[in-house]
Amino acid sequence: MNPDFDLQEELKKLPQKPGVYIMRGKKDEILYVGKAVNLNRRVHQYFVNRLGRGPKIEHMVSRIAYFEYIVTDSELEALVLENNLIKENRPKYNTLLKDDKTYPYIKVTIREEYPRILFTRKMKKDGARYFGPFKSSFAVRETIELLRKLYHVRDCSRSLPRDIALERPCLNYQIGQCDAPCQGKIPKEEYRKKIDQAIDLLEGNYRSVVKELEQRMKDASEAMDYETAGKMRDLMQSVISVTQKQKMESGDGEDRDVLALATDGTDAVVQVFYVRGGKLIGRDHSFLRIGEEDASMPSEESVSARVLSTFVRQFYASSAFLPKEILLECRIEDQELIGEWLSARRKNRVYLKVPVRGTQSRLVKMAKENAQIALKMDRERIRLEEGRTIGAMQEIASLLGLGHLTRVEAYDISNTSGVESVGSMVVFEKGQPKRSDYRKFKIRSVEGPNDYASLKEVIGRRMRHGMEEIKELEERNLECADTSFSVFPDLIMMDGGRGQVNVAEEVLRELGMDIPVCGMVKDDYHRTRGLYYHNVELPIDTRSEGFKLITRVQDEAHRFAIEYHRSLRGKAQTHSLLDEIEGIGPARRKALLRSFGSLEAIRDADEEHLKKAPSMNAASARKVYEFFHPTSTK
Predict the structure, then answer these.
(1) What is the per-residue pLDDT for 381?
(2) How many CA atoms lie within 13 A of 169 on its CB side?
(3) CA-to-CA distance for 136 and 140, rounded, in angstroms?
């Protein structure tokens, strides 16, 4: 288990509500997604009751580092959200469908002059109204049949009004279940009113219909016509089932983000729901510390407007994707101006909306509820996380006498006797690794095992690259870039002591840059013991969060360099030998490695087996065999 995740405490916080739970591993990977009628009871079962569990579940539970959850308003919504998340993330321990089968919908073809009500399993951007998804296809078919009987909606595929009076009316007209628009027997306006009534029922206004069916059931029961009474009961249940409020999917297929805020004094959580292609596929939440000036505003609404406005600007300033719509719980400060800014970034219109009714409004309310739960349940975890990340950065800043510390870069060199020397750059922002900004360097100008010269090359290349990017941005009148090089660190941390620090400071002086540099010093047992800064080694409390962060930064820089060096060394060892064989080009080399799996297997194979590999023939097989067995003769 992740030491920062207190399992027993988190289990106590689980709400007694329906929703979806997400099990994650140590690298934040999603292991399993499940739904629950009661999140508290269901998630507890994984960690308390082991009876009847198979080895697969036991193995999954042993890999869980932490879990998270999303609260929904009903079991149906949890089921649909679970389906969306599984399809989007394809977790290892979930059963994955191989086909494209999905839940049923009710489709109303409102763009037709005489619309129809149809059963479908796919939503398309065709202008139709879609209702669903639903978990019971039987209930959907029953409801469609009921709507046709109640409102005499046609079910034929004739193109109207083009085909009016071309054929005789169908059997439904003869038995009084269709008004025969195909014969022009009902005006278009009157037919539309019936469709509007059917849509009204599908939108959830079903009480009058249920009341009528209930009365028919009672009448049939009093007349001892129990078969008819049973049918009326089943129809009632079908109508109620398909008219449940459904927020997990929308029929318009648009991309949108849903933002809601929960506040308590100076603490706040913003919940973000991600809707892609009309489907809710995930969420994220951010913890905020409200400034004293914002917290002292005259009303809760004005605090929300200010905090959400700040969050939107910061969140979307660095976002790689901007949706078409952003749904908000309230109007935010400078909403029109922010909308123009986002539209310019997206190069297409971005709409900031505050829905007041309908599915979108209910989705915002659900995001609000999840934000409130996160704020209430996770307050202690927030404090621990802040201490471990932002608080740890502040500890280091105080130790070094720096005013602020947001971005840290660390460098390390890896080589084997000077062969395939590589450098690594890792980045931590606000105390957390920012892996998208990690960079690898293959040493170009240094021969042999010279770590100081290699560090000088790596840091020089990184800083010059950043200066060139900034110059290019200024020439093009751009404000920011999407690459890590144009953002310089507040502190450089070197894996080592005086020598490594001096190298970095020399490069910075040559470039005219003023960035603090410190060394992460290790003891005789290769354990971090303190920081080297301004020619002085500063001791640090080994129990502090700042010390733990320094250790994480140092280990990450070393790991990243070693991994890159290992990958290059492996490629060089594999490819160099095969490249030395005359007549064995890239195609045959790949074919051999694909067929035999390793260099050792190729070396141990005889000519007959080598000849059978793709792209190989007798002559090339002979050359490969003779290369590995130079003393053999035929």
Answers:
(1) 65
(2) 17
(3) 6
Residue 153 · residue 195 · CB < 8 Å? yes
Which H, E and C letters describe 240-258, residue by residue? HHHCCCCCCECCCCCCEEE
Whole-angstrom CA distances from 616 to 63, 202, 406, 586 are: 44, 66, 57, 12
User: Furthest-apart CA pair in the chain: how many Å?
Assistant: 102
Distance CA 331, CA 26 (A): 39
The CATH number, out of the four listed (1.10.3900.10, 1.10.150.20, 1.10.240.10, 3.90.1150.10), of the domain defined by the range 580-628: 1.10.150.20
Confidence band for 319, pLDDT divided at 50, 70 and 90: low
pLDDT cut 90: percent of the chain above it: 15
Please check whether the domain covering 256-378 is classified as CATH 1.10.1240.
no
pLDDT of 97: 46
Q: How far apart are the C-alpha atoms of 484 and 429, rounded to whole Å? A: 12
- Predicted TM-score (pTM) of the model is 0.43
Query: Which residue in the block uniquely carries the two structure tokens 């919908």?
Result: 105
- In 3-state terms, what secondary structure has residue 23? strand
Predicted local distance difference test score (pLDDT) of residue 9: 80
In this chain, the answer to whether the domains covering 256-378 and 391-565 adopt an identical fold is: yes
Helix intervals (H) in 389-518: 390-400, 451-475, 498-511
- 8 A C-beta contact, residue 117 and residue 104: no
- Share above pLDDT 70 across residues of the chain, in percent, rounded to a whole number: 85
Q: What is the pLDDT of residues 498-537, one digit of tens each?
A: 899 999 999 999 999 999 999 998 877 667 788 999 999 9
pLDDT digits (tens, 9 = 90+) for 340-358: 888 888 888 999 999 988 7
CATH number, domain 391-565, options 3.40.50.920, 3.30.420.340, 3.30.1330.20, 3.40.50.720 = 3.30.420.340
**Residues in contact with 258: Cβ distance below 8 Å, sequence separation at least 6, in sequence order:** 271, 272, 273, 275, 326, 327, 360, 363, 364, 367
- pLDDT beyond 60 at 43: yes
The whole-angstrom separation of Cα 568 and Cα 561 is 11
Q: How far apart are CA 246 and CA 80, in angstroms?
A: 9
Superfamily designation of domain 7-89: GIY-YIG endonuclease (3.40.1440.10)
Q: Nearest CA to 592 among 627, 566, 633?
A: 627
Residue with tokens 């144009």: 486
CA distance to 60, 290, 407, per residue, from 262 (Å): 33, 11, 28
Secondary structure (3-state) at 14: coil
The angle at the Cα of 172, spanning 178 to 159, to the nearest 5 degrees, equals 70
How confident is residue 482, by pLDDT bands cut at 50, 70 and 90?
A: very low
What is the per-residue pLDDT for 251?
A: 58
Average pLDDT in the chain: 81
What Cα–Cα distance (Å) separates residue 348 from each residue in 315, 340, 341? 18, 10, 11
**CA–CA distance, 597 with 356 (Å, rounded to integer):** 61
- Domain range summary for the chain, segments of one domain joined by +: 7-89, 105-242, 256-378, 391-565, 580-628
pLDDT tens, 539-577?
888 888 889 899 889 888 888 888 765 666 555 555 556
